[in-house]
Design goal:
Elements lengths: L1 E4 L2 E8 L3 E4 L2 E4 L2 E5 L8 H6 L8 E5 L17 H14 L5 E6 L1 H12 L4 E7 L7 H12 L2 H12 L5 H15 L5 H10 L4 H9 L18 E6 L7 H10 L3 E6 L6 H4 L1 H14 L2
């Protein structure tokens, strides 16, 4: 489905019911907007890693502007600020007063910005393997230099410089870096995942060469007043667990969970534990 908002068309998909029949009542469930990583990724991985949460929530899978199945647009318009404001426009389009936001990686940066800019519209917040500021970049580079292979350091130059030239090059990057993104990296599953997704390397270039080098939410995170679950992976190289700890320390009502056997892809590395943590939070957060 496409929603025309703020001069663009955003793709969204819905799974699960907002009002569930329980006994002789219809019980309202949280509506969860799932925000993907990138920039320039899409919602596809959530369909296999988070769709089981439909038993406790209505899930709204979102492709950021210009990403995935959303309408194409110039990469220069796909800013963090626009992504944040697009989410509120989609909330309004769907007629929802408040939403729960689950953001992973770059999507977690969008989610933080949304909770800061639109505090009255956020019921609960889930921040997965993300960072509160541009300082994740030098930490990631340091970890790569310590743990990475020569080939991994080679392909990461495309990321640091925002210089991907093709989707084939982007695929090479994710394939070579796969064992660092996921402790459970599997070549067959990688091929399946790549085939399902729609990626935009120009958006990735734009993000890593501009706003990801300067954004900083740390001064405003203490203003986030909603219940918040912060998830990190103990072996995450790109958004190290130290970044999750900073977020949890700054948000007054935050609960931190670091997954001991996960890297960046927590939902793939420890799928049952990830679902249990999020399901529990959605069930009991007040």
């Amino acid at each position: 489905m496409l929603a025309t908002v703020r001069g663009t068309k955003l793709f969204f998909d819905v799974d699960g019911v907002q009002f569930a029949p329980i006994g002789d009542r219809l019980v309202e469930r949280p509506v969860v907007f799932l925000l993907h990583g990138g920039p320039g990724g899409d919602h596809a991985s959530f369909k296999t890693q988070a769709a089981a949460l439909r038993d406790v929530a209505q899930l709204v899978f979102v492709d950021h502007r210009g990403s995935g199945r959303s309408a194409t647009c110039p990469a220069g318009t796909c800013t963090l600020d626009n992504n944040i404001d697009d989410i509120d426009a989609l909330r309004e389009y769907l007629g929802l007063e408040r939403i729960t936001v689950l953001g992973s990686s770059y999507g977690g940066m969008v989610a933080q910005g949304y909770a800061i800019r639109y505090p009255d519209r956020v019921a609960n917040l889930i921040l997965c393997v993300t960072a509160p500021s541009h300082e994740f970049l030098p930490q990631a580079q340091e970890i790569l230099n310590l743990r990475g292979t020569d080939d991994q350091r080679r392909v990461c130059e495309w990321l640091w410089n925002g210089s991907f030239e093709s989707l084939a090059q982007l695929r090479e990057y994710y394939y070579v870096m796969g064992p660092m993104y996921s402790l459970a990296f599997d070549e067959a599953k990688f091929a399946q995942s790549w085939g399902r997704g729609i990626r935009n390397f120009e958006q990735l270039n734009f993000g890593f060469s501009t706003f990801l080098r300067t954004f900083d939410f740390r001064d405003r995170l203490p203003d986030v007043g909603c219940p918040t679950l912060v998830i990190g992976g103990a072996h995450d190289w790109i958004c190290p667990p130290a970044q999750s700890r900073i977020i949890a320390d700054l948000i007054p009502r935050a609960h931190l969970k670091i997954f001991a056997n996960s890297s960046h892809a927590v939902a793939a590395d420890e799928p049952a534990e990830f679902l249990a943590a999020v399901r529990g939070f959605l069930t009991y957060a007040q």
